Structures are given as structure tokens and as C-alpha cells.
Amino acid sequence: MQIGYFTERPYRWLPEEEILRNRGYFAVSNSHFDREKAADDYHYYLDEYCYAEDLGFDVVALNEHHGNPFCMGSVMNVEASVLAYRTKRVRIVLIGNPLPVIKHPLRMAEELAEIDLISRGRLVTGWVRGAGSEQFFNNANPAYNREMFNEAHDFIIQAWTRPGPWRYEGKHFHYRHVNPWALPYQKPHPPMWIPGVLSPETVQWCAEHRYPYIGLGTQLGPTCDLWDFYADVAAKNGYQAGPENFGYLIPTVLAESEEKAQSIADNFVYGGGQNAFSAPQFTMPPGYNSKSAIRMLAKQQTSTWLGVSGEKIRESMEEGDTGEVNYDEVRRKLRSGLQKVQQNLQVIAGTPKTVIPKIKSILSVLRPGIFIMFSIQGPVGNEDRRTSMRLFADEVMPALKEHAKAIDLPDPFQRTPGSVKLTSGTARGPVADRTPLAALGLK
Amino acid sequence: MANFIEETVKAAGAELALVRGGSGKPLLILHDELGYPGWMEWNEKLAQNRTLLIPYQPGYGKSARIDWILNYRDLAGFYSQVIREMKLEPIDVIGFSAGGFIAAEMAAADPAIFSHMVLVAPMGIKPATGEIFDFFAVTVRRHLMATVADPANTPEYLKIYGGQMTPDRFEAFEDARSETARIGWEPFMHNPSLPHLLRGAKTPTLLVWGTQDKVVPRGCIDGYRAAITGAQVVEIEGAGHRPEIENVAEFDRAVRKFLSA
Predict the structure, then answer these.
(1) Do A285 and B179 touch (CB under 8 A)?
(2) What is the DSSP string of B19-67?
(3) Which of A199, A258, A309, B111 is the one with CA 20 to 30 A from A127?
(4) pLDDT per residue over B182-215, tens digit each?
């Protein structure tokens, strides 16, 4: 099993009222941006990732968001470059570069090749479509989001593997001269892990490409359903999916006492937390979601990880975004919501003693080969952040590794995803184990 | 009530759903970026002596999306083919908002395709002052609310857009918004070359604009007036972006007078 460390690198100096008043992190004015504090924090977060290597994490994971104090990784490849040089052992996992909003796959191929070279082959590069708000920030046509994602991905693979120079005339991208003089250190190219919040289209695409899919704190039951879907697609493509095809990332915080852990965990809903990533009008730009996804969202109004919550759909369908904000009432609701997601095992907070059985349960159900700790959000001080990391690494990680070994969770480096052949007509084996869900009070 | 029917015509290599109603000389109606809202009082009035032809824009649910159409100029080219194949040219046209943009692109390519062109709060030209409202950056509900000056006192607005937003309606609006984004995201709802290509066009043109329009600024009207020789302007006092339902009588009077001239 690969165990990773991830943080959104939150901007920690923004009053919560600003986010609540704005009904989301995206579009809070950058007049609140403090250059000195931000410079300190960029240094701190890079040091923190190096500390993760020192603590023994296998993987450090970065992401990228635009125009959003929720995440300071505006240009993740810059941070990845620094880590490629500074670290010596950890794999650097990018989850992921938002191809359709960057809109320059040749440049992307060059940047990532350099990072892989500098790190001497420690890059794992993932791709995302970019959040809804990022279609606005980067003025990327949301109606072409998936088309551009697919085309950019296919182009980058070619740019890394097909000797140049050659010419490319695609639908969305055009290059006269493709011949990058920085090719990845790894052959034929770095591995790719794809994060997501259970969009069936993305899951299918991953299974077809034999890329590990990383569920971002999604509910266990629906995650099992999508794992099954992945495995069905895998079977149609002639292979048996296994732990090497799945990863799971979950908000996790540890402290020396339960009280302290709970107090810090409140920061996962600071300003509204993940569901306040952006206000409804920015979460679902026109054309961004497939027709089937829109139909499903409009009818089911379910809650997921990055802002497309039932409440947001309802707000989008109705008025909902006017009037005064009652901050205390909002905070009360947020804290109460936090209790619920802890019961659902979508946020893990506690001491090593209480956290270990919870994460072991998750591993038993989802059987992922990759587990990533998503570190605390909000204005939490460096010391508490590091304590949480240290407790996880010293006490939780060994227990998880042992458990993973006991229940046989090979990671993508131990078993190549897609390498277990399944002959046509053979029934596929299970990929998730729902048995423990009932005992956990979950569906 | 006039008889109107929905039918599908095969033209320009596609199947196009359209509403046909009334009797008399054909009149092409190009709906706005939110889709055809239904047969309303202004339709009823004009249908007394005109045959209204109201195509459902491709990609807006009833007519399938046409992938080769990448922008409003392509869409205008498609509609021009449809008009030619149906042997309707020259035809009178009323284009609303983005539908005005389509009509103007058609006239820019072929000024003789229209005998009269009515552009109601048209997008398509970047205004020298003001901005076209970025309706992509708001919820559907907010967009709808911005289209009339006084929603509570516009009966037909309440008739077509009042009540609960059902999943089906939400989906229909998302269809319209998606297709509008696909072809109008950048440059946003205008074409920099349009005013240049309209230069010298002598298509008899009426520009209608509500003085309280929050979607299309007066600058767009000024841009069209400067580009199209002899274009007339009718301002409807107090109306917003939908003068045809906000002040039916005045809208009908202005359009009828222009079309009969």
C-alpha cells in the first residue's frame, strides 16, 4: 500500500465572515491577500511536504485550484518542481493538472517532463477537468471541458512517446512543431492517478485507460458502487481490477486528545468547508456537466465532495442566494454537518487509538492500494498541523500498512494496474467488501 | 387563438424542429439564448396576418445539436441554408437577443436574405460603453429575473417562468445554457468582425430596445445603428430585455408599422 500526505495549502489569514458573506471561497476579493503571510506559508507548506518525507510517507500529493483561498496551489507544477529538487525519496503525485483550463498541453508535457527529470523519475501525474469555478477564472469554455480534457491527455501521451518533430492539427489544439527537448525520466511516461468525486464518465475513462482512480472523500456506499462500475468496465477491457486500481483520500486529523482533535476538526468546515468551494453559479457552469449528470443532479440532489451538494443544486434551481447571513446559525449548521460526516467516516478525527480502527474499516470496505491523508483545513497553526502528521506517521501508518498486508492490498507499484488478465466470459472478482458497512451503520 | 403546430423540417443536412402558426406572409422568429418560451400574446397578434416560423435552435432540446456549428456565424450560415432550401428568401425576421445576433450575422453574409429585419435587444456587437450581462456567471433564476424590468408586474413573465423550477425545466434551461456557452463563450456573445461586415448593408432594419434593459446595454443598439445604413431605433420606455412581453401593445405597434412599410 502507498500512503500519502496531501494538503490543500489553505490561505490561513482570511476572516471566516468574508467567506460566509460571499457564500463560498471562490470570488472572495484578493484585496484580502497578504503577500508577506502568503510568502511565509508557501515556504511553510513546502517544508511541510519535506517533513512528510522525513516522517516516512510514501507519497506527497499536490493539487491545483485557481482564484481560490481554499487552496494556495495556483500553479502546482511550480511547487512540484521545488519538491522534485528538495526531496529525495517520496513520489510526487499531482492530483491533478486541470488540462481543459490550462489549455496548453504541449507546455504541460514539457513542465511535467522537467519535474520528472529533476526528481529522477518520482513523478506520478494525474489529470482533472478543473472545478466549475475554474472555467470562469481561466475563461475555458465549459461546454468543451471533457472534449478538451480527452484531447489534451491524448496529445500529451503522444508528445512524450512519439519521436518528433511532427505536426498536430486537432479540434481544440494545434501545434506546428511537436518535438519537446525534455522527455520524462520514466519510460514510456510517468504513471497517472486520476482523482474524482464519482463522476461515472471519469470512472469509465480511468478503467478504459487502466489508470488508478482516487475517490476524494466520497461516501463509502456510493464509492463501492463506482468501484464495481470501474471493475465492470475493466472486465470488458479484459482485466480484473484490484486494489492497485483504487485510491482513497480522506480528511484526517490527529491530536493528543479527542477534545483537541475535535476542536481542530472544526476547521474542515471553516467558511463552509469543501461544500463552500464556490457559490452555485460558479460550481456548475453551463455545459460543464454531461446531460446525464445534470439529470441525475437535478433529481437526486445528493451531496459530494467539491461543492456540488444538494443544497447548491436547490439554490441554483431556486433563488437562495440573497439576503443577510446569520453567521452563528450558519456555523451551527456547519458544525452539526461535521458530526454527520464523521459518523459517515468522511472525516476522520481523533487520537491514533480511535482513528486506526476507523481507517482500517475504510480500507476493509474499499480495498484501495493507495490511501492519502488530507490534512486539516482552515487557520490551524503549524504546530498542530505537524503534530497531526507525526501522530499519523508514527502510530497510524504502521497499523495501516500491517492491515493492508493482512488483507492483501497491493499498490500500483507492486502490481501494475490492468495487468491481471481476465479471459472473455469469465466472471470478474469483487473489488469492494460491503460486509462491514452494516456494522458501521452505513449503507 | 391562432392555430400553431410543431413540425420538423429536413434542411441544411439536419432535422430542425419549428413552430408554425398563423396565416399570411412568412415571418421568421429567432428566439433568444434561453430558448423558445412558448406561444404568447405578441405571437398571437402578429399571427393574425403573418405565418410565424419559429425554429428551435439546434442543441436546445427539440432540435439536435449540430457539432460543426462552432459559433454564431456558423449558426447563421446554417439558418441561411434552411431559408434558401425552404425557398423563403427574402423573408422578414425578428430576432431576440442572441437571436438578433444570428439574424445580423445572416444579413452580414447576405443583406438581401431579409426584406425586413427587426432586432430586439440584439447581442452580437461589443458595445462601446457598457457590457453585455454575463448571464453564464449567475444561476438560471437570476438570469431570468434580469430579463424583465419588473417581474412581479409582467403577467406573461409569471406565466412562462413563474412557479417551481422542476427538474425538467432545469434540464431544459441547462440545455440552452450549454449550447449558448458552446458557441458564444468567447468572445462573449459578440463577433468583432460583425460591425465591419454589416457596413453598407441596406437591409431595412428596426432596432427595438427597452430603456430598462439590464442584459443588453444601449451601446449594442448604437453599434448596430452605426453599422447598418438607415437602421431605425424604437425605444420602449420602462421595458427591460423583453419588451415583447413587458409592453405588448407598443412592441406590436412598432413592429407592425415597420414590417408594413
Answers:
(1) no
(2) EEEESSEEEEEE--TT------HHHHHHTTTEEEEEEPPTTSSSSPP-T
(3) A309
(4) 999 999 999 999 999 999 899 999 999 999 999 9
